[in-house]
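Chain A, query sequence.
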Amino acid sequence: MAGLPSGTVTLLFSDIEGSTALLSRLGSEYADALDAQRTLMRRAWSDHGGIELGTEGDSFYVVFETAPDAAWGAVDAQRALATYPWPQGEAVRVRIGMHTGSPAVHGEAYVGMDVHRAARVAGAAHGGQVVLSDSTATLVAGRLPEATALVDLGPHRLKDMPAPERLHQLTIDGLQSDFPPLKTLGSTSRLPVPATPLVGRDTEVASLVARVASPDTRLVTLIGPGGTGKTRLAIAVAERLWTTMADGVYFVPMATVTATESAWPLVAESLGLPPEVRSTGDVAAAVADKQALFVLDNLEQVADADIFAAELLSASPRSRAIVTSRRPLHTSGEHEFPVPPLGLPAADEVADVGTSPAVRMFVQHAQRVRPAFELTADNSAAVAAVCRHLDGLPLGLELAAARIKLLSPSALLNRLGSVLDVAAATTRGSDRQRTLRSTISWSYDLLDERSQTFFRRLGVFGGGGDLAAVAAVTQAEADALDAVSDLLDASLIGVVDDPSGEPRVVLLETIRAYALDMLAHSGDHESTRDRHARHFLAVAQHLVPMLEAERYQFAKARLGSELGNLREALDWTLPENEPVSMPAGRRALGIELCAETGIVWASAFGYPQFEGLPFTRRAIERDTRGDGVALARCLTHASSRLSIQGKWGESHDKAVLAVAMCRRLDDPHRLIDALNVQAIIDSERGAVDDARDAYEEALMLTRKVGNQIKRHEVIADMAIFVETHERDYERALALKREALALAHEIGSPFALVLDRHNIACSLRLLGQLDEALAQMRSVIPEALKLNIPSGLMYLAEDFAAILAERGEARLAAWLLGTADASHKTLQAPRPSPQEAEIAEPMATARAALTSDEWDAAYAAGHALPIDEMLQQALQETG
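Chain A, predicted structure.
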């Protein structure tokens, strides 16, 4: 044959899988089917420059000048075959293999190992599959046909080939992508072919490879809830280890068996033993001399799985095993490896989102159903939210991404309320993984009744709970540790350390949704919810007073851990739409919760400062008694939050009601709080005399009841009033120093930082700029440790005012920019007295710079996180 291309070429072989069986089924119509197959494939070859070198029966041998041409030809051929109306509906399934090399041209043919290698690659494939050698895949990567992808199948031993060959599958959108293990010799040949590349598991693969390869390790169990990707990870590790195992790697799927008697035949099948050699003794004899790696997939439901794994390794003393299971085997020599979900994006910007392993997997699966899908600035936030909603579970990401064919990411996000029932594509084989619900049910159904009850009740926890809370709410006081241990073994919960170092039980949100669903149908949903709300009311009553004293940091950290539980308790006791059947006692519990937790949401403590306000409004509206301590406290909290939002009229009305109610209740401690809030609001509204009277009365009451904590609060706030409204800077400084002395006495870290910050402001107003700067510089490191957003915000703008008066205009613009960004983020308008105090120095700073210089410095500060900006300002002024 003249004119054969020389040099580097791609050789392609194909044939019909099961042609003899197909002939027997089609009879006389087989010839028509064969003619149609030849016509379709010849058209595909010629369309991409293929030259036929040989056709025998149902096979083809074709050469292409380039690897991409060969890939395009194979894709077109498989698509044409898949859509052709075959006689009697009997699909003609063709396997295609290709290899790129430089065979020698001899007459009208090619000779050399490259020809034989290409034939062996094709022989390894299954009907409908396209397999490429590594050299072909390298040349095709980046130039793939539309709606296709390469999947690395790992190294394989090919018959008569001196060295292993790394093979790849060319998957075609819309056509079959899951195939049995390739038909090669041993090792990786016994592993299934993953449909997509592994994403985001480099660290886990490297760690597992090192662990399995260690001389001291023979059994490693990958543990995790359903859908975390244990099987895919195990296959990837086995692919990496096959060269270390003289007799290969074998994959044993065990999801369908429950007894060890059924497990041994599956091992025999994986080894390729004949049907009559399937007994335990036969398998043990077959593996006795092997040095192999067995991947035992899905052992959690197999009775005596520990005995089975131990007997297999005992029968094959040079072999090792990787087990995937939702629970550990608890057998001697087992190394447990918890498989975490994929990493989630920390922010919503497209650059941050795109690096997240969970997002990368979502995009990969989305592109399988919508090839043009891309992560953009417009959809990155929605994609990130979808991945967070699904806890980074690979199964959930795959199931949800399939919906991108019809839905935008934002539309998908809006429909994830029924996340447990997001269904898999119809081609997915395993019923237990067709939805997240079914994969969690698989683990739940393996629990005994006691553990099922315990698991259901854990669903009421938002963000988990410590052992004391878990025991109280689930009523498992006597055996809470055992119950936690059982669910931990079942991979239905996790355990982390809380801020005090104690264990904390946590659930993935997808698993928690399942637990809540089961609880709702169990008959003890309401009683469990009520116990949960009562417990966290007691927690708040214990911790909230510590926020005002020396245990501030401990209480802040603990309350921060329990925000999710406080939300759950408030949602249950004060729902947005209260049912007619709501028990009065439950509503009263909600009002008590609001009264106790109002300070928790205060901006001073760094929590979402307005999150509690809707609950507080509901508590006020629904209190049917109309004159209790809890209602008075709720009115005070609401008044304080509303004032920060600049809603002075409504905040004033609620403060007046709170003061009047506390007087009627004759509760001086609560009256001090209400008067202090009213004084702040009156001063902002311009009612200076009313504000002064309220402060004076509150201060008198603190002396009367001997409450130093509240005395500190009143004096600190009164100092600001004297400074901003009476312009008596000397008296204001004296009051602030008195407050600082009280802060030392009560030992509150928050109060110490606040008072030192306030003293720096007074020193600036008195013209003592060096002292003001020194004071401010000394307090910033302590404030950064506390990390209270609103505190850092006011610190930044007051620091800016000091620097402005010292002539450091650029730094002042930086700090004002970062402070303004915080005001926007916290939804907290700058109070008018504060606006007035910094207006003059900032005007001076602005005048010292050109408009462009000011804008550039302000924008730089606006873009920087406030903690970084303060650190930088410290360095600049050091």
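The two ends are 84 Å apart (CA to CA). Residues 423-429 have pLDDT under 50 and may be disordered.
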